[in-house]
Amino acid sequence: SSEGGIPRGLLRIQDVPGQVQFGDVRWARDGRSVYFAAYDGQGTASFWVVGASGGAVRQLVRFDDPSRPIFRANFTADATRLYFTIGDRQSDIWTVEVKE
After folding, report:
1. pLDDT digit string (tens) for 42-58?
2. Beta strands in 1-100 (DSSP E)
């Protein structure tokens, strides 16, 4: 909470199958979920979600199309979508609907 308290870990990289590194992290606007980027051993990015109190992680999207890599794993989220950039090093903006 914003009032403070003792920090606690939400998850470990071992909890995210096939991933070896975390990227950017964003809270859902309702505070009930946390979205994050992760990378596998080949550097392929993906976006995941986990409940704010912990629990099972769920993969939302994996960027395994070599013609559409993700160069910047920064993103933002609202109640139903993730907004992120993919493709070449231009600033194209893409969205994906989040179904919970």
Report:
1. 888 899 999 988 889 99
2. 19-27, 33-40, 45-51, 57-62, 75-77, 81-84, 94-97
Number of Cβ within 10 Å of residue 69's Cβ equals 15
Q: In the predicted model, what is the mean pLDDT of the chain?
A: 82
Q: In which region does residue 18 sit, left (phi positive, over 0), alpha (psi from -120 to 50) or beta (all else)?
A: left
CA distance 71 to 61: 15
The gap from C-alpha 85 to its chain's centroid, in whole angstroms, comes to: 13
**Within 10 Å of residue 49's Cβ, how many Cβ atoms?**
19
